[in-house]
Write a structure and sequence with these properties.
Strand 12 and strand 13 form a beta hairpin. The chain is an alpha+beta fold. Helix 7 packs across helix 8. The chain is built from ten helices and 13 strands. The two termini are about 15 Å apart.
Protein backbone atom coordinates (compact mmCIF):
# COMPACT_ATOMS: atom_id res chain seq x y z
CA UNK A 1 0.00 0.00 0.00
CA UNK A 2 1.36 3.43 -0.97
CA UNK A 3 2.21 5.90 1.76
CA UNK A 4 0.40 9.27 1.47
CA UNK A 5 2.91 11.98 0.59
CA UNK A 6 2.75 15.79 0.59
CA UNK A 7 3.90 16.12 -3.00
CA UNK A 8 3.45 19.87 -3.39
CA UNK A 9 2.97 22.99 -1.29
CA UNK A 10 1.80 26.38 -2.51
CA UNK A 11 1.69 29.61 -0.53
CA UNK A 12 -0.03 32.93 -1.17
CA UNK A 13 -0.03 36.06 0.96
CA UNK A 14 -1.47 39.55 0.61
CA UNK A 15 0.74 42.65 0.91
CA UNK A 16 2.65 43.11 4.16
CA UNK A 17 3.25 45.94 6.58
CA UNK A 18 5.73 46.25 9.40
CA UNK A 19 4.58 45.85 12.98
CA UNK A 20 5.87 49.36 13.70
CA UNK A 21 3.85 50.80 10.80
CA UNK A 22 0.71 49.06 11.99
CA UNK A 23 1.21 50.36 15.51
CA UNK A 24 2.01 53.95 14.58
CA UNK A 25 -0.46 54.22 11.73
CA UNK A 26 -3.49 52.53 13.29
CA UNK A 27 -3.35 50.68 16.59
CA UNK A 28 -1.73 53.52 18.58
CA UNK A 29 -4.99 55.40 17.98
CA UNK A 30 -7.25 52.36 18.16
CA UNK A 31 -6.19 51.60 21.73
CA UNK A 32 -6.68 54.61 23.96
CA UNK A 33 -6.56 55.61 27.61
CA UNK A 34 -4.91 53.30 30.11
CA UNK A 35 -4.72 50.39 27.64
CA UNK A 36 -2.53 52.22 25.13
CA UNK A 37 0.79 51.79 26.96
CA UNK A 38 -0.01 48.12 27.68
CA UNK A 39 -0.86 47.57 24.01
CA UNK A 40 2.37 49.23 22.90
CA UNK A 41 4.41 46.83 25.08
CA UNK A 42 2.50 43.80 23.79
CA UNK A 43 3.03 44.83 20.17
CA UNK A 44 6.74 45.43 20.79
CA UNK A 45 7.20 42.02 22.46
CA UNK A 46 5.04 39.99 20.06
CA UNK A 47 7.93 38.41 18.17
CA UNK A 48 6.42 39.83 14.97
CA UNK A 49 8.29 42.22 12.63
CA UNK A 50 6.00 42.05 9.59
CA UNK A 51 2.47 40.85 8.93
CA UNK A 52 0.23 40.43 5.91
CA UNK A 53 -3.30 41.79 5.58
CA UNK A 54 -5.82 41.38 2.78
CA UNK A 55 -7.65 44.33 4.34
CA UNK A 56 -4.88 46.56 5.67
CA UNK A 57 -6.00 48.81 8.56
CA UNK A 58 -3.53 51.45 7.38
CA UNK A 59 -5.66 51.79 4.25
CA UNK A 60 -9.12 50.66 5.34
CA UNK A 61 -10.63 50.51 8.84
CA UNK A 62 -13.04 47.58 9.15
CA UNK A 63 -13.34 47.76 12.93
CA UNK A 64 -16.88 49.17 12.86
CA UNK A 65 -18.14 46.94 10.07
CA UNK A 66 -21.03 44.54 10.84
CA UNK A 67 -20.31 40.84 10.45
CA UNK A 68 -22.34 40.58 7.24
CA UNK A 69 -20.12 43.10 5.47
CA UNK A 70 -16.99 41.36 6.72
CA UNK A 71 -18.23 38.00 5.39
CA UNK A 72 -18.94 39.46 1.97
CA UNK A 73 -15.43 40.90 1.86
CA UNK A 74 -13.99 37.54 2.97
CA UNK A 75 -15.28 35.90 -0.19
CA UNK A 76 -13.88 38.70 -2.38
CA UNK A 77 -10.40 38.49 -0.86
CA UNK A 78 -10.09 34.76 -0.08
CA UNK A 79 -11.01 33.48 -3.55
CA UNK A 80 -7.99 34.87 -5.48
CA UNK A 81 -5.65 34.13 -2.56
CA UNK A 82 -6.83 30.53 -2.42
CA UNK A 83 -6.60 30.18 -6.19
CA UNK A 84 -2.98 31.35 -6.14
CA UNK A 85 -1.98 28.92 -3.37
CA UNK A 86 -3.76 25.96 -5.01
CA UNK A 87 -2.26 26.72 -8.41
CA UNK A 88 1.25 26.74 -6.97
CA UNK A 89 0.69 23.50 -5.04
CA UNK A 90 -0.66 21.70 -8.10
CA UNK A 91 2.29 22.91 -10.19
CA UNK A 92 4.74 21.73 -7.52
CA UNK A 93 3.09 18.31 -7.48
CA UNK A 94 2.95 18.07 -11.28
CA UNK A 95 -0.85 17.61 -11.28
CA UNK A 96 -3.87 19.38 -12.71
CA UNK A 97 -7.06 20.33 -10.87
CA UNK A 98 -8.88 17.54 -12.67
CA UNK A 99 -6.67 14.95 -10.96
CA UNK A 100 -7.95 15.80 -7.46
CA UNK A 101 -10.29 13.30 -5.84
CA UNK A 102 -10.92 15.20 -2.56
CA UNK A 103 -10.72 18.94 -1.95
CA UNK A 104 -10.57 20.06 1.70
CA UNK A 105 -10.86 23.70 2.76
CA UNK A 106 -9.95 24.84 6.28
CA UNK A 107 -10.98 28.31 7.41
CA UNK A 108 -12.36 29.86 10.59
CA UNK A 109 -12.33 33.52 9.53
CA UNK A 110 -15.12 33.55 6.98
CA UNK A 111 -18.23 31.69 5.89
CA UNK A 112 -20.40 31.72 2.78
CA UNK A 113 -22.40 29.28 0.70
CA UNK A 114 -21.42 28.49 -1.98
CA UNK A 115 -18.02 28.61 -0.32
CA UNK A 116 -14.39 28.49 -1.36
CA UNK A 117 -14.61 24.72 -1.93
CA UNK A 118 -17.32 25.07 -4.60
CA UNK A 119 -16.11 28.30 -6.20
CA UNK A 120 -12.49 27.21 -6.45
CA UNK A 121 -13.48 23.77 -7.76
CA UNK A 122 -15.48 25.58 -10.46
CA UNK A 123 -12.85 28.19 -11.33
CA UNK A 124 -9.90 25.78 -11.35
CA UNK A 125 -11.66 23.09 -13.40
CA UNK A 126 -11.95 20.26 -10.90
CA UNK A 127 -14.00 17.27 -11.98
CA UNK A 128 -17.70 17.20 -11.17
CA UNK A 129 -17.03 14.00 -9.21
CA UNK A 130 -14.44 15.66 -6.93
CA UNK A 131 -15.50 15.27 -3.32
CA UNK A 132 -15.30 18.26 -0.99
CA UNK A 133 -14.94 18.82 2.73
CA UNK A 134 -15.02 22.09 4.70
CA UNK A 135 -13.35 22.29 8.13
CA UNK A 136 -14.41 25.38 10.03
CA UNK A 137 -13.88 26.86 13.48
CA UNK A 138 -11.05 24.51 14.46
CA UNK A 139 -8.70 27.47 14.46
CA UNK A 140 -4.93 27.28 14.45
CA UNK A 141 -4.61 23.48 14.41
CA UNK A 142 -7.05 22.82 11.53
CA UNK A 143 -4.31 22.01 8.99
CA UNK A 144 -3.42 18.81 10.84
CA UNK A 145 -6.87 17.16 10.92
CA UNK A 146 -7.12 18.40 7.33
CA UNK A 147 -3.94 16.52 6.45
CA UNK A 148 -5.24 13.52 8.36
CA UNK A 149 -8.46 13.45 6.31
CA UNK A 150 -6.51 13.89 3.08
CA UNK A 151 -4.13 11.09 4.07
CA UNK A 152 -7.00 8.71 4.88
CA UNK A 153 -8.67 9.45 1.53
CA UNK A 154 -5.45 8.91 -0.42
CA UNK A 155 -4.80 5.63 1.40
CA UNK A 156 -8.33 4.33 0.89
CA UNK A 157 -8.93 5.53 -2.69
CA UNK A 158 -5.45 5.73 -4.21
CA UNK A 159 -6.23 9.20 -5.62
CA UNK A 160 -4.72 12.62 -4.88
CA UNK A 161 -6.28 14.98 -2.34
CA UNK A 162 -5.87 18.72 -1.97
CA UNK A 163 -5.92 20.74 1.26
CA UNK A 164 -6.33 24.52 1.35
CA UNK A 165 -5.98 26.53 4.55
CA UNK A 166 -7.06 30.16 4.04
CA UNK A 167 -7.47 32.72 6.81
CA UNK A 168 -8.21 36.45 6.74
CA UNK A 169 -7.85 37.50 10.35
CA UNK A 170 -7.53 41.15 9.26
CA UNK A 171 -11.30 41.23 8.80
CA UNK A 172 -11.90 40.83 12.53
CA UNK A 173 -10.40 43.92 14.15
CA UNK A 174 -12.80 44.77 16.95
CA UNK A 175 -14.41 48.23 17.37
CA UNK A 176 -12.50 50.73 19.50
CA UNK A 177 -15.68 51.01 21.57
CA UNK A 178 -15.66 47.28 22.38
CA UNK A 179 -14.49 45.89 25.71
CA UNK A 180 -10.71 45.84 25.52
CA UNK A 181 -8.70 43.34 27.54
CA UNK A 182 -5.23 41.89 27.33
CA UNK A 183 -6.48 38.91 25.31
CA UNK A 184 -7.89 41.23 22.66
CA UNK A 185 -4.69 43.25 22.44
CA UNK A 186 -2.59 40.09 22.06
CA UNK A 187 -4.74 38.81 19.20
CA UNK A 188 -4.55 42.16 17.39
CA UNK A 189 -0.75 42.16 17.83
CA UNK A 190 -0.18 38.63 16.49
CA UNK A 191 -2.62 37.65 13.76
CA UNK A 192 -2.02 37.82 10.03
CA UNK A 193 -3.45 36.59 6.70
CA UNK A 194 -2.30 33.76 4.43
CA UNK A 195 -3.36 30.85 2.26
CA UNK A 196 -1.39 27.61 1.90
CA UNK A 197 -2.34 24.56 -0.16
CA UNK A 198 -0.95 21.03 0.07
CA UNK A 199 -1.34 18.24 -2.48
CA UNK A 200 -1.30 14.74 -0.98
CA UNK A 201 -0.62 11.83 -3.33
CA UNK A 202 -0.29 8.03 -3.07
CA UNK A 203 3.48 7.67 -2.94
CA UNK A 204 6.15 9.60 -4.82
CA UNK A 205 8.69 12.22 -3.64
CA UNK A 206 7.82 14.63 -0.85
CA UNK A 207 7.01 14.43 2.85
CA UNK A 208 5.38 11.10 3.73
CA UNK A 209 2.63 11.43 6.33
CA UNK A 210 3.33 8.69 8.86
CA UNK A 211 0.72 9.61 11.47
CA UNK A 212 -1.56 12.38 12.71
CA UNK A 213 -2.55 12.34 16.37
CA UNK A 214 -4.21 14.60 18.95
CA UNK A 215 -5.09 15.18 22.58
CA UNK A 216 -7.83 17.46 23.91
CA UNK A 217 -8.10 18.77 27.47
CA UNK A 218 -11.81 19.61 27.65
CA UNK A 219 -11.43 20.89 31.23
CA UNK A 220 -9.78 23.97 29.70
CA UNK A 221 -12.28 24.53 26.88
CA UNK A 222 -12.81 28.15 27.94
CA UNK A 223 -9.11 29.03 27.58
CA UNK A 224 -9.32 29.68 23.83
CA UNK A 225 -12.49 30.93 22.18
CA UNK A 226 -13.54 32.41 18.82
CA UNK A 227 -16.99 33.96 19.13
CA UNK A 228 -19.16 35.18 16.28
CA UNK A 229 -20.41 38.64 17.25
CA UNK A 230 -22.31 41.38 15.47
CA UNK A 231 -18.93 43.08 14.89
CA UNK A 232 -16.96 40.19 13.42
CA UNK A 233 -15.32 37.31 15.29
CA UNK A 234 -13.81 37.98 18.71
CA UNK A 235 -10.81 36.07 20.07
CA UNK A 236 -10.53 34.89 23.65
CA UNK A 237 -7.01 33.79 24.64
CA UNK A 238 -6.30 32.92 28.25
CA UNK A 239 -2.79 33.52 29.63
CA UNK A 240 -3.07 29.98 31.07
CA UNK A 241 -2.75 28.36 27.62
CA UNK A 242 1.04 27.84 27.91
CA UNK A 243 0.50 26.06 31.25
CA UNK A 244 -1.94 23.62 29.62
CA UNK A 245 0.46 22.97 26.77
CA UNK A 246 3.26 22.28 29.24
CA UNK A 247 1.14 19.48 30.78
CA UNK A 248 0.45 17.68 27.50
CA UNK A 249 2.98 18.41 24.77
CA UNK A 250 5.80 16.14 25.95
CA UNK A 251 3.55 13.10 26.34
CA UNK A 252 1.88 13.70 22.97
CA UNK A 253 5.19 13.94 21.12
CA UNK A 254 6.96 11.13 23.00
CA UNK A 255 4.05 8.74 22.39
CA UNK A 256 3.89 9.66 18.70
CA UNK A 257 7.60 9.08 18.19
CA UNK A 258 7.67 5.90 20.28
CA UNK A 259 5.03 4.29 18.05
CA UNK A 260 7.53 4.68 15.21
CA UNK A 261 10.61 3.63 17.20
CA UNK A 262 11.98 7.16 17.36
CA UNK A 263 13.09 9.76 19.88
CA UNK A 264 13.10 13.54 19.61
CA UNK A 265 16.85 13.55 18.96
CA UNK A 266 16.12 11.86 15.60
CA UNK A 267 13.85 14.72 14.48
CA UNK A 268 15.67 17.42 12.50
CA UNK A 269 12.66 19.59 11.65
CA UNK A 270 10.13 21.09 14.06
CA UNK A 271 7.10 22.89 12.60
CA UNK A 272 5.51 24.27 15.77
CA UNK A 273 2.58 26.66 15.48
CA UNK A 274 3.78 30.04 16.79
CA UNK A 275 0.78 31.07 18.84
CA UNK A 276 3.14 33.61 20.36
CA UNK A 277 6.64 33.76 21.85
CA UNK A 278 5.50 32.17 25.14
CA UNK A 279 4.02 29.19 23.31
CA UNK A 280 7.29 28.52 21.50
CA UNK A 281 9.29 28.93 24.70
CA UNK A 282 7.13 26.36 26.50
CA UNK A 283 7.40 23.81 23.68
CA UNK A 284 11.15 24.33 23.45
CA UNK A 285 11.54 23.80 27.21
CA UNK A 286 9.22 20.80 27.55
CA UNK A 287 10.70 18.96 24.57
CA UNK A 288 14.28 19.94 25.55
CA UNK A 289 14.96 21.11 22.00
CA UNK A 290 18.35 22.45 20.91
CA UNK A 291 18.77 26.24 20.56
CA UNK A 292 18.00 26.22 16.80
CA UNK A 293 15.21 23.65 17.07
CA UNK A 294 12.43 26.20 16.63
CA UNK A 295 14.32 28.60 14.36
CA UNK A 296 11.88 28.04 11.47
CA UNK A 297 8.86 28.62 13.71
CA UNK A 298 10.32 31.82 15.18
CA UNK A 299 11.32 33.11 11.75
CA UNK A 300 7.79 32.47 10.47
CA UNK A 301 6.30 34.34 13.42
CA UNK A 302 8.74 37.19 12.82
CA UNK A 303 8.03 37.52 9.09
CA UNK A 304 4.37 36.50 8.89
CA UNK A 305 2.79 36.64 12.34
CA UNK A 306 0.25 34.03 13.44
CA UNK A 307 -1.81 33.20 10.33
CA UNK A 308 -3.99 30.65 12.15
CA UNK A 309 -4.45 27.37 10.22
CA UNK A 310 -1.96 27.97 7.35
CA UNK A 311 0.94 28.74 9.70
CA UNK A 312 2.31 25.22 10.30
CA UNK A 313 2.26 24.65 6.55
CA UNK A 314 4.25 27.87 6.06
CA UNK A 315 6.82 26.48 8.50
CA UNK A 316 6.87 23.09 6.73
CA UNK A 317 7.47 24.89 3.44
CA UNK A 318 10.39 26.76 5.02
CA UNK A 319 11.87 23.52 6.39
CA UNK A 320 11.53 21.85 3.00
CA UNK A 321 13.32 24.70 1.21
CA UNK A 322 16.18 24.89 3.70
CA UNK A 323 19.68 23.71 2.78
CA UNK A 324 19.80 20.92 3.66
CA UNK A 325 16.04 20.28 3.82
CA UNK A 326 14.70 18.71 7.00
CA UNK A 327 14.40 14.94 6.62
CA UNK A 328 12.15 14.03 9.55
CA UNK A 329 9.59 16.56 10.76
CA UNK A 330 7.18 16.81 13.67
CA UNK A 331 4.34 19.29 13.19
CA UNK A 332 2.57 20.67 16.25
CA UNK A 333 -0.43 23.00 16.43
CA UNK A 334 -2.78 24.11 19.18
CA UNK A 335 -6.25 25.59 19.36
CA UNK A 336 -9.73 25.60 20.89
CA UNK A 337 -10.63 22.65 23.01
CA UNK A 338 -7.92 23.06 24.34
CA UNK A 339 -6.53 20.82 21.61
CA UNK A 340 -3.01 19.75 20.65
CA UNK A 341 -2.42 18.12 17.27
CA UNK A 342 0.78 16.49 16.08
CA UNK A 343 1.97 14.85 12.86
CA UNK A 344 5.07 12.87 11.94
CA UNK A 345 6.53 13.25 8.44
CA UNK A 346 9.66 12.02 6.72
CA UNK A 347 11.11 13.05 3.41
CA UNK A 348 10.93 10.62 0.48
CA UNK A 349 13.00 10.84 -2.68
Amino acid sequence: MSVPVIAGLGTAQPPSASQDELWEGFFSRHFTGTTRSLAQRIFANSGVTRRQAAVNPLLEDVSDWPTERRMRRYQVEALPLGKEAVGRALTAAGLSAGDIGLFIVCSCTGYATPGLDILLARDLGMAAETQRMVIGHMGCYAALPGLGAASDFVTARGRPALLLCAELTSLHIQPSSARVDTQQIVSHALFSDAAVAAVVTPGGPGYALREVTAVTDTSTADHMTWDVTDAGFRMGLSPKVPQVLSRHVRGLVDDLLARHGLTSSEVDGWAVHPGGPRILNVVERELALPPQGLAASRATLDEHGNCSSPTVLLILDRLGRATPAARRVVMLAFGPGLTLYAALLDRQG
